[in-house]
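Progress report, Aim 2. The chain analyzed during this reporting quarter is listed below.
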Amino acid sequence: MEKVSLPIKTKIAAWWIRILAIILLIRGIFDTLSGMWLRGHEYMYPPFPLTHAFSSVYLKFARFNFIFSILLFFFSYFLFKGRKWSWIGSLALLIVNFIDRLQGFVSFLLMTARLKAGIMIGYFSSYFFFLIAFLLPIILLLLDRKNFFKVAT
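Predicted structure tokens for the chain:
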């Protein structure tokens, strides 16, 4: 019996998801380490009494990024194997994270009216990169779903 190859758009999306998961995993590790550093050095910031609360929120976000990236890598692995449940899971995770990043982007735009242009451009480009990075595999997976479900098990 001949093994049918995965559609090319699905392969591109799976590789894109895998690279995105690695980037988010590295970012999650660095965010966790910096959040732990903030929590351990509260005495250095006496004018900022909310350092503990900030580091708690920061650590929760970093853990979310860490878990999300591991799940994305897991789903991309099984997407290469041609599993339907991995297609659904990776699409759901990408959409949830895209909506989360979009909400952060909109709130950033609403709250940064008074920031300097250099700071705004840096944050804007970071948010814009992640919005595009999550949107491309969503589009590729949705465009090639019929072909993928023909060959998937």
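The mean pLDDT is 77. The chain has one domain: 8-151. These observations will guide the mutagenesis work planned for the next reporting period.
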